[in-house]
Specification:
By secondary structure, this protein is α+β, with helices and mostly antiparallel strands. It is built from 13 helices and 17 strands.
Length: 478
Amino acid sequence: MDSSGLTSIYAYYNPYGLYGLGGLSSLGAVAAANRSQGSSSVSGIGGSSWTTVSSLGQTLSAVSNLQTAAEKLTKPGAFSSLSVASSAPTVARGSAAEGTAQGAYTVRVDQLAQQQVLTSAAQATQYTAIGSGADTTVNFQFANGRSASVDIDGGDNTVKGLAAAINRADIGVSASVVSGPTGYQLQLSGESGAGNAFTVSASGDSTLSDFFSSPPGGNGLLLTQQAQDAKGSVNGSAFTSGTNTATTSVEGLTLKLNATGTTNLTVGGNADQAAAVTDFVKAYNAVQSGLNSLSREYAGFNLTAPYLRNTLSQALTPGAAAGSGNIQKLADIGISSNANGSLSVDTEKLRSALSSNADAVASLFSTDKGEGVADRILAQVSEDGALAVDNLLKSAAPSLTTAGLSTANLQSNLLNAMFNQQQNWLSQYSGLGSLTASLGSTDSLLSSLLGSSSNNLSGLGLIGGLSNPATVTSLFSS
């Protein structure tokens, strides 16, 4: 069963969010409700099996929470003593370094930074020879004064070979082959910013020289996107940046630009820098607890659970690029491992580390190379990781089958149980809605007869009281 099975059942059959169920972890309550009405099982699933379904649901939910907690630790500014809120994050977000003045800032983004793109004339195939194959040198001249060259030998005189040769040279221009209705074209993309605009020329084979002429001449390169800087202002003070991460005239304020437009940033104190770390630890412990529960309930899962627990534990060891100075491992910031695999936090030591070297703490959890603790946890709970939803379901499937629950029957039974319970609750809500409408009409009639808003039923809070079941019960039991 894939992730669209168990994990989507609750969302599919509870689209209105009316019932307050906590997803798969509450399916045991659904079973109990059905059994209380005289049924010994729900759609053929017995109580012990429901226990495992509930544990599986809790574990899946815990994995999702761990992913969310880890993602927070990888975001820029996660450990800053200052927080930056954006009224329009789709336009721009911000991060503030120590010493940034707290207050409100109006940010206007006039244009985003972008790279230059050149596209060649089309060739019949990506392996069609261009020219005679004579040795050729392709020259790149950049607007910032930098220059570079790439040598093309006889075996690279195709759009496929040219792209490979340029990429191997690593000169700040990436090459790719794109296909279209007219054939295959070489596309050259520079780095963002006006200073990285470039022109291309070639010497050697005359056909290749014509192919690379820029501005276009004959079969030369066509400019399909122009390089430009990001431009905008903060409180009226202009900024320019070659990338869409921009420093500003406000000391310590850095912007991540997403679109043109205007947003208001509010820089304020970060109430609790340690909260994100403690939330991460709680989420990690919940996953370990879920795996332990599954192991206790079904012996078949005992073969898989140690591997999964060990995988999580190993992810807590950061890579060489993570941390700095005297902060190199979780223990250095007050996080220790217990015998049962859970983690504990020394809050005072954590706060001390954040106060003395927040940058090192941030690096311990996330680096550009993905070697931080949060990076490594994310790798295990996302996509193809060992604890990704699909893989966790596959790991649990043999245990469920041993208990008499094939994955196909499990999904079917869960769907039936959720659907039946939903229909029951929808019927109750529908009846309550009709009652509300009826009482509303009666209220209006009595109000007009009494002629005083202070004496009408709305004034007594009857209709508003319908949001409280106890109020409704008391009204009809008196």
